[in-house]
Amino acid sequence: MSKAEKTRQFIVEKTAPIFNTKGFAGTSLSDMTTATGLTKGSIYGNFASKDEVALASFDYNLRKLRGYIQGEEDKATTIKDKLKVRTRVFSDEQLTAYPVGGCPLLNTATEADDTHPDLRKRVVDALESWKEKTMEMIAQGISNKEIAAGTNVEQVTLTLMSMIEGAIMISRTTGKKHYGRSVMEVAQQYIDSL
Protein backbone atom coordinates (compact mmCIF):
# COMPACT_ATOMS: atom_id res chain seq x y z
CA MET A 1 0.00 0.00 0.00
CA SER A 2 1.39 3.38 -1.00
CA LYS A 3 1.75 6.27 1.43
CA ALA A 4 -1.16 8.06 -0.28
CA GLU A 5 -3.36 4.94 0.06
CA LYS A 6 -2.44 4.61 3.73
CA THR A 7 -3.29 8.27 4.32
CA ARG A 8 -6.65 7.89 2.55
CA GLN A 9 -7.40 4.80 4.62
CA PHE A 10 -6.41 6.62 7.82
CA ILE A 11 -8.71 9.55 6.97
CA VAL A 12 -11.62 7.21 6.27
CA GLU A 13 -11.08 5.15 9.45
CA LYS A 14 -11.00 8.30 11.57
CA THR A 15 -13.91 10.11 9.91
CA ALA A 16 -16.27 7.15 9.33
CA PRO A 17 -17.52 7.14 12.94
CA ILE A 18 -18.18 10.88 12.75
CA PHE A 19 -20.16 10.68 9.51
CA ASN A 20 -22.12 7.72 10.89
CA THR A 21 -22.91 9.59 14.11
CA LYS A 22 -23.36 13.19 12.97
CA GLY A 23 -24.40 12.59 9.37
CA PHE A 24 -23.17 14.28 6.23
CA ALA A 25 -24.59 17.72 6.98
CA GLY A 26 -23.54 17.60 10.63
CA THR A 27 -19.93 16.63 9.96
CA SER A 28 -17.73 19.68 9.51
CA LEU A 29 -14.25 20.07 8.13
CA SER A 30 -13.21 20.92 11.68
CA ASP A 31 -14.56 17.53 12.82
CA MET A 32 -12.49 15.83 10.14
CA THR A 33 -9.28 17.70 10.96
CA THR A 34 -9.73 17.12 14.69
CA ALA A 35 -10.35 13.39 14.22
CA THR A 36 -7.40 12.89 11.91
CA GLY A 37 -4.96 15.47 13.26
CA LEU A 38 -4.43 16.50 9.64
CA THR A 39 -4.83 19.88 8.02
CA LYS A 40 -7.57 20.82 5.58
CA GLY A 41 -4.97 20.69 2.83
CA SER A 42 -3.96 17.15 3.77
CA ILE A 43 -7.56 15.95 3.73
CA TYR A 44 -8.40 17.64 0.45
CA GLY A 45 -5.05 16.61 -1.00
CA ASN A 46 -6.27 13.03 -0.65
CA PHE A 47 -9.98 13.51 -1.37
CA ALA A 48 -11.52 15.89 -3.88
CA SER A 49 -14.34 16.96 -1.56
CA LYS A 50 -16.28 16.31 1.61
CA ASP A 51 -18.67 14.27 -0.54
CA GLU A 52 -15.85 11.92 -1.50
CA VAL A 53 -14.83 11.46 2.14
CA ALA A 54 -18.47 10.82 3.10
CA LEU A 55 -18.91 8.18 0.37
CA ALA A 56 -15.69 6.43 1.37
CA SER A 57 -16.74 6.58 5.02
CA PHE A 58 -20.14 5.07 4.24
CA ASP A 59 -18.45 2.28 2.29
CA TYR A 60 -16.11 1.65 5.23
CA ASN A 61 -18.96 1.51 7.74
CA LEU A 62 -20.96 -0.77 5.46
CA ARG A 63 -17.99 -3.15 5.03
CA LYS A 64 -17.58 -3.28 8.80
CA LEU A 65 -21.26 -4.07 9.27
CA ARG A 66 -21.31 -6.67 6.51
CA GLY A 67 -18.16 -8.33 7.81
CA TYR A 68 -19.67 -8.68 11.26
CA ILE A 69 -22.97 -10.02 9.93
CA GLN A 70 -21.26 -12.45 7.55
CA GLY A 71 -19.10 -13.77 10.36
CA GLU A 72 -22.18 -14.36 12.53
CA GLU A 73 -24.11 -15.96 9.66
CA ASP A 74 -21.18 -18.28 8.98
CA LYS A 75 -21.46 -19.55 12.56
CA ALA A 76 -25.18 -20.32 12.19
CA THR A 77 -26.12 -23.86 11.17
CA THR A 78 -29.70 -23.32 9.98
CA ILE A 79 -31.30 -20.82 7.63
CA LYS A 80 -33.56 -19.57 10.40
CA ASP A 81 -30.55 -18.96 12.63
CA LYS A 82 -28.85 -17.08 9.78
CA LEU A 83 -31.98 -14.94 9.37
CA LYS A 84 -31.95 -14.17 13.10
CA VAL A 85 -28.42 -12.72 13.06
CA ARG A 86 -29.65 -9.18 12.38
CA THR A 87 -32.25 -9.46 15.12
CA ARG A 88 -29.60 -9.79 17.82
CA VAL A 89 -28.13 -6.29 17.49
CA PHE A 90 -29.21 -5.04 20.88
CA SER A 91 -26.93 -7.04 23.13
CA ASP A 92 -24.02 -4.91 24.33
CA GLU A 93 -21.39 -7.33 23.00
CA GLN A 94 -23.00 -7.28 19.57
CA LEU A 95 -23.20 -3.49 19.46
CA THR A 96 -19.44 -3.18 19.89
CA ALA A 97 -18.98 -5.04 16.61
CA TYR A 98 -21.14 -2.52 14.76
CA PRO A 99 -19.79 0.72 13.33
CA VAL A 100 -19.75 3.59 15.85
CA GLY A 101 -23.08 5.37 15.57
CA GLY A 102 -25.09 2.27 14.68
CA CYS A 103 -26.53 1.08 11.42
CA PRO A 104 -25.03 3.06 8.53
CA LEU A 105 -27.97 2.16 6.29
CA LEU A 106 -30.51 3.70 8.61
CA ASN A 107 -28.34 6.68 9.53
CA THR A 108 -27.52 7.55 5.96
CA ALA A 109 -30.92 6.77 4.44
CA THR A 110 -32.77 9.20 6.65
CA GLU A 111 -30.43 12.03 5.79
CA ALA A 112 -29.61 11.37 2.15
CA ASP A 113 -33.01 10.37 0.78
CA ASP A 114 -33.71 13.84 -0.64
CA THR A 115 -30.45 15.71 -0.19
CA HIS A 116 -27.52 13.64 -1.39
CA PRO A 117 -28.13 11.49 -4.48
CA ASP A 118 -24.77 9.69 -4.39
CA LEU A 119 -25.16 8.63 -0.76
CA ARG A 120 -28.79 7.70 -1.42
CA LYS A 121 -27.67 5.44 -4.27
CA ARG A 122 -25.15 3.74 -1.99
CA VAL A 123 -27.93 3.04 0.54
CA VAL A 124 -30.32 1.79 -2.15
CA ASP A 125 -27.64 -0.56 -3.49
CA ALA A 126 -26.91 -1.85 0.02
CA LEU A 127 -30.61 -2.41 0.74
CA GLU A 128 -31.08 -4.23 -2.55
CA SER A 129 -28.06 -6.40 -1.79
CA TRP A 130 -29.45 -7.23 1.67
CA LYS A 131 -32.83 -8.01 0.09
CA GLU A 132 -31.35 -10.31 -2.54
CA LYS A 133 -29.20 -12.17 -0.02
CA THR A 134 -32.14 -12.64 2.35
CA MET A 135 -34.38 -13.83 -0.47
CA GLU A 136 -31.73 -16.38 -1.46
CA MET A 137 -31.52 -17.64 2.14
CA ILE A 138 -35.31 -17.98 2.39
CA ALA A 139 -35.46 -19.77 -0.98
CA GLN A 140 -32.74 -22.14 0.26
CA GLY A 141 -34.78 -22.70 3.44
CA ILE A 142 -37.81 -23.59 1.33
CA SER A 143 -35.71 -25.91 -0.82
CA ASN A 144 -34.32 -27.78 2.18
CA LYS A 145 -37.79 -27.84 3.83
CA GLU A 146 -36.74 -25.69 6.78
CA ILE A 147 -39.19 -22.98 5.66
CA ALA A 148 -42.74 -23.75 4.51
CA ALA A 149 -43.38 -24.19 0.81
CA GLY A 150 -45.50 -21.40 -0.59
CA THR A 151 -43.81 -18.74 1.55
CA ASN A 152 -43.87 -15.38 -0.23
CA VAL A 153 -40.10 -14.85 -0.30
CA GLU A 154 -40.10 -11.17 -1.21
CA GLN A 155 -42.85 -10.27 1.26
CA VAL A 156 -41.13 -12.08 4.12
CA THR A 157 -37.82 -10.44 3.23
CA LEU A 158 -39.23 -6.92 3.13
CA THR A 159 -41.15 -7.52 6.37
CA LEU A 160 -37.98 -8.66 8.15
CA MET A 161 -35.96 -5.75 6.80
CA SER A 162 -38.64 -3.29 7.92
CA MET A 163 -38.91 -4.83 11.37
CA ILE A 164 -35.16 -4.78 11.89
CA GLU A 165 -34.52 -1.24 10.66
CA GLY A 166 -37.70 0.00 12.38
CA ALA A 167 -36.59 -1.51 15.68
CA ILE A 168 -33.20 0.15 15.39
CA MET A 169 -34.77 3.51 14.53
CA ILE A 170 -37.29 3.44 17.40
CA SER A 171 -34.69 2.30 19.91
CA ARG A 172 -32.06 4.85 18.90
CA THR A 173 -34.51 7.74 18.60
CA THR A 174 -36.14 7.14 21.98
CA GLY A 175 -32.97 5.94 23.70
CA LYS A 176 -34.92 2.91 24.93
CA LYS A 177 -33.16 -0.32 23.97
CA HIS A 178 -36.04 -2.39 25.30
CA TYR A 179 -38.28 -1.03 22.52
CA GLY A 180 -35.89 -2.43 19.96
CA ARG A 181 -35.48 -5.71 21.83
CA SER A 182 -39.25 -6.10 21.92
CA VAL A 183 -39.56 -5.73 18.15
CA MET A 184 -36.58 -8.01 17.56
CA GLU A 185 -38.17 -10.71 19.72
CA VAL A 186 -41.26 -10.55 17.52
CA ALA A 187 -39.04 -10.72 14.43
CA GLN A 188 -37.42 -13.87 15.82
CA GLN A 189 -40.84 -15.40 16.48
CA TYR A 190 -41.85 -14.49 12.93
CA ILE A 191 -38.75 -16.27 11.58
CA ASP A 192 -39.54 -19.33 13.71
CA SER A 193 -43.09 -19.39 12.28
CA LEU A 194 -41.94 -19.57 8.65
TrEMBL record:
Q: Where is the signal peptide?
A: none
Q: Which domain of life is it from?
A: Bacteria
Q: Which GO terms describe its molecular function?
A: DNA binding
InterPro entries according to UniProt: Homeodomain-like_sf, HTH_TetR, Tet_transcr_reg_TetR-rel_C_sf, TetR_C
Residues annotated to bind DNA: 28-47
Xref: Pfam families: TetR_C_13 (PF16925), TetR_N (PF00440)
Q: Where does the record place the HTH tetR-type domain?
A: 5-65
The protein's UniProt keywords, in alphabetical order, are:
DNA-binding, Transcription, Transcription regulation
Protein name per UniProt: TetR/AcrR family transcriptional regulator
Species for this entry: Chitinophaga agri
